[in-house]
Amino acid sequence: MKTRLPVNFLIGAVLVALVLGAAALSLVWTPHDFAQMNIKAKFGPASSTYWLGTDQLGRDVVSQLMAAARNSMTVALAAVLIGGSIGTALGLLASAIGGWVEDLVMRIADIGFAFPALLFAIMLAAVFGPSLTNAVLAISFINIPVFARVARASANQVWTREYVAAAQAAGLNRAVISWDHILPNIGAAIIVQATIEFAVAILAEAALSYLGLGAQPPAPSWGRMLSEAQTLMYLAPQLAIYPGLCIVAAVLGFGLLGDGLRDITDPRLSRER
Amino acid sequence: MSYLSLSAARVAASLAMGALLGAAPALAETSIIIGLQQEPTSLDPTADATASIDGMLETNVYESLTTVDESGEVLPALAKSWEISEDGLTYTFKLEEGVTYHDGTTFDSADVVYAFTRAMAEGSTNPSKGIFKPIASVTAVDPSTVEIKLTEKDAFFLFNLAQGDAAIVAEESADANNTTPIGTGPFKFDSWTRGDKLVLVKNPDWRDAADVSLDKVTFRFIADAAAASAAMMAEEVDAFPGFPAPELMPQFEADPRFKTEIGSTEGEVILAMNNSKPPFNDLKVRQAVSYAINRDEIIDGAMYGMAVPIGSFYPPHGPAYEDLTGTYPHDTAKAKELFTEAGVEGTTMTLRVPPFPYAMRSAEIIQAELSAAGIDAKVENVEWGFWLEEVYKKKNYDMTIIAHTSPNDMGNFAKGPDYFYGYDNPEFTALWDSIRTESDPEKRNALLKQGQEELAQQAVHGFLFQLPRLSVIKANIDGFWTSSPVLYQPLAGVTVN
Questions:
Q1: How far is residue B187's CA from residue B202's CA, in Å, rounded to a whole number?
Q2: Do A231 and B367 count as a contact with CB atoms less than 8 A apart?
Q3: What is the ipTM of this complex?
C-alpha cells in the first residue's frame, strides 16, 4: 500500500537540502571572500552588496554563514562516519560473539555514555591544542557507544531469524554472517540513527566552537560567530541571530529527517498510519 | 548570590538602625567586589611576572619602601623619609616604626636587608632583577634605618623601589607568599579560591587604618569579555578596572548605575617576535611584519578605536615620547616583497595568543593582514599558565601578542638573549645603562628617544598600541585611578557612598 511521506520527513528534507546546498555551494562560490575584512565597513546593514550586512570586522555575514555550514557539515559527517563505523563494528562483534565479550563491549559503551563529550574535547584540546580535528575526534568518540548499542540490539534480533540459522547450518562462520546477512538487515536502523546523530554532532560542533575548542580562526563556524556576537548583542543583535537560526535549521532539519526516516522504515509505525 | 543578598540585608539593617539612632555611624561592613581579567598562578610579586599579582596585592597587602600616586610621583611608604648623598650613590631610608606583618612578626631594617638580599641572590626568580642591578650593598644601620649603596647612579631607583618586585617580604613568611601572601599593608590576605576569587580583609593594625573605608575586598576572576559584561550588568561585581570589552563602554556610559572611564596605562601592546629564532633573526622578516600590520585597522577592529598607536616601546603619555608609527608604515606590497626577498613567503608561523580579549582580537586581524602579505599565521589561543611556561619561560614561540604594563620597561630589550624576546644587542644594553644612570631629565629624555628610534628601526617587534585602561565602576564608588602609571591600584583610598 502506498502511503504519503510523513510531514516531519518533508520538512526535515527541505531544511537539510537548504543547509547542505549552502554548504556545497560554498565550495565553489560565496558572495564574497568570507575572510575578507573591511574594518571601516563594520556592522554594515543588509544591502544589495552584503545581503545580511557585515560583522564586527566588516566581513560578509552570508559568506561566513555559508562557509561555516560547510565546516559544520564536514565535522558532523566525519564524526558520524568514524563514530558510526567503530560503534557499529563493536555492536556487531558483541552480538556475534555474545557471552563475556558482549558484556564487556556493552559495559565499555556504558562508560562511554557516562563520559561527558565536552570534557573529553577539553581534555583533547589541553593535550593537543584546540583544532577541528580534535573536535571531530571528540564528537566521534561520543558517537561510538550510541551506535554500538543500536547495532547490537538490532543485530541480536536478526540473529534469531531462520535465514541466519540456515546460514549457520551451511557452515558459514560468524564474521561472514555478520557482514553478509546481519549488517544489511540492520542498515535501516543504523541510517536512521546516523541522521539523528548528525543533528547531535552539529550541535556539539557549535558548542565546542563556541568554547573556542572547534574550528580555529579564520575558519568560520556558527558556534564561534555566536560567541563573538555575545558582547555585541546591544550593538548588532543580528550577528547572534543569524548563526543561531542556522544552527536551529540544521539541527531541526536532521532531527526531523531522522524521525521521518524511522517512521518510513519501521513497519509497525507505517501500518498505524 | 547568597553573599550579595547577605550584604543587602546588612545594608538594610544598618539603614534601619541608622534611622533609629539618628546620626549613629553605619555599622554595615563595607565591601566591594572587583572584577579582574587575569588570574595569576602565584601570589608572590617578587617571583612571578604576572601583572595582576601587583594589581591585587601591591600597596594593598605588600608594601615597598616607596609608593607612587596616580601621576607617577614617588611617595613614602615603609620608608617614611630618605636622604640621597651628593654623589647620588648612597640612599639612607628612615623606616616606619611599630609596623607589624599580618602574621604578627615585626618589621624592621633586617626585613629590608632580607628582602633585597633575596631578590638579588644568584638563583632569584625576581621578574625585574634589573631594579636591583645597581645595588652594591644594603645595610641595616639601626632597626629603623637602612642604607643602600649603589655602584652607579640610577634615575629610576626610587620609582623602581615602589614596584611589587621590590616588596619588603619577611623572612618568616617569604617562602609561603606564593599561596598565602603576608605583607604589612592596609589589607590582609583572606583566601584564594582558584579559578574563582581572591578575598582581602581590612588590616585594623595598619598605621593609617582609620582612613581605610573598605572592610572587605573580593577580586573575582572573569576572563571572558561576555561574562565580564554580564557580571557587571547584573551588578555581581562593583568595579571592573581593566574592562575587557571596549565595544560595551558606550552602553555602560549610558547606564546611570555606572560610570565609565577611559584612561591610559604604561602598557605597550606588541606583536612579539622571537628574535633569536629563524626567521625572525632576519631584520628583513621583522621589517616585513611591521609593514604588514595596520595599526589603525587593529585599533578600530580590536579596541573600537579606544587606543593610541605606538611605533616603538614607550607609552605616548610619557615625557620622552616620540611618534615613530611612520617608521614602517602599513604597506602590504612592501611586506610581501620583503618576505619574498627573505625567502619566507608562503611559510607558516605560529602566533600563540594569551587569553586576553585585546590579544585574541588583535590576533585575528593580524592573521588576516599577514595572510594578505603572503604569510600563513596559525593562531593558537593558549591559557595564561601555558603562556607563562612555554612562551615567557621557555621561549617556545614564533610570535605572540602581549601588553607590557610595567613602567620604564624599555630595559626589557637590555635583558639579553635569555629574555623571551631573544633580542641580543649590546649597543642597546649600553644605551639603556646610560639612560638609567643619567640624572639630568632633559638628557635622559633625549637618550630615551634614541632608544625608541633604535627599537623602531630594528623592528624588534610589531609595535601595536598603548593598552587603554577602561574602567566600569558603580556610580557610588570613588577612589579608583583613571590611569595607572604602575601595575597596582591602591584600595586604601576607595570609598563606597
A1: 4
A2: no
A3: 0.74
